[in-house]
Amino acid sequence: MHTLTLPTSTTMLAWVCTRYGGTDVLRLRTLPRPVPGPRDVLVRVLAASVSSADMRVRTQKLPRGFGLLGRLAFGITRPRQPVLGTDVAGVVEAVGRAVTGFAPGDAVVGVAGVAMGGHAEYCLLPGTRPLVHKPARLSFVDAACLPFGGLAALHFLNKANLRAGESLLVIGAAGAVGSAMVQLARHRGAHVTAVCSGGNVALARALGAQAVIDYTEEDFTQDPQQWDVVADTVGASSFAACLPRLTEHGRYLAVAGSLAQVLARPRGTRRSIGGPAAERPEDLQTLMDLAQAGVLRPVLDCAYPFADLPAAHAYVETGRKRGAVVVALP
Length: 330
Ligand SMILES: NC(=O)c1ccc[n+]([C@@H]2O[C@H](COP(=O)([O-])OP(=O)(O)OC[C@H]3O[C@@H](n4cnc5c(N)ncnc54)[C@H](OP(=O)(O)O)[C@@H]3O)[C@@H](O)[C@H]2O)c1
What we know:
By secondary structure, this protein is an alpha/beta fold. The protein is built from nine helices and 15 strands. InterPro entries: ADH-like_N, ER, GroES-like_sf, NAD(P)-bd_dom_sf, YIM1/Zinc_Alcohol_DH_Fams. GO terms for molecular function: oxidoreductase activity.
């Protein structure tokens, strides 16, 4: 447990990732509070997700083949952006003079995404980043659960052009991406089979999966059936291994795939889709509209106090979280 010292109005507390490594590289520091430029919005953070991306940046445990690319993207010896944190929910503190649509006091949800910076008392969101008003029915903590997994799930379902009546297999259905994908696919009218461990079967069914395969008991690659789309949200399979399980025009979604999976060439009429998910404002609005309508439910594993962010990181690193892990600020 870390002791918080109260900041002045020009400073803020932030968790700084001082270098790549274990959770001991995370240090609570007092930093200058960002000052919004003309198109920026400064958000007072009340909840922020601790995503698998935060954990991957800190540890540099990346899918096979991405090691060098990761260092080039995030910083060679330490993170170029030392304050991690991909998604925030909070209250607008200040807006730049060219900002329209947001005013101080508004409750919002924002995606710092690859630019990061959410694990702080204040997060600066440039005008190009997704930022929307928080749905009234969601708490700040629940709202912070949705963007990371939801945006990735929506992006890949759109890339696959999943249509009503098609079948989808979701590997990793209990994770942040998987739990959103099961719900979004059901909303599209797809038939969803979830793959998870026995302890998450009830969760997968509650999210809407019509069939569930417990991978500790059964290997889906040996299953006689085929699916129109196979989405691997945890990197537990390969395009080659899933080919026999894909229908004639089947699509394999390498959400967490190695470089080889991401670059895999089509095999006849079957293809693999990979790469980074887009972070589009309109997609964040879609997710929040679905949440407000009760169609997309946040899956919160655990909310930690901001002071316990290293413990949250350690839990995410187990690879066993259900849905999202969030840190909450007073
Ligand atoms: N391409 C992109 O732009 C993009 C965007 C977002 C995320 N990602 C990547 O997507 C991956 C998933 O992210 P996430 O946040 O959803 O992960 P996560 O929440 O950390 O995933 C944890 C879940 O994975 C499940 N799991 C672990 N091994 C499994 C296996 N062999 N088969 C089935 N389920 C398994 C666990 O459930 P059980 O206990 O039931 O096994 C656990 O609930 C990460 O690697 C992330 O980097 C990529």
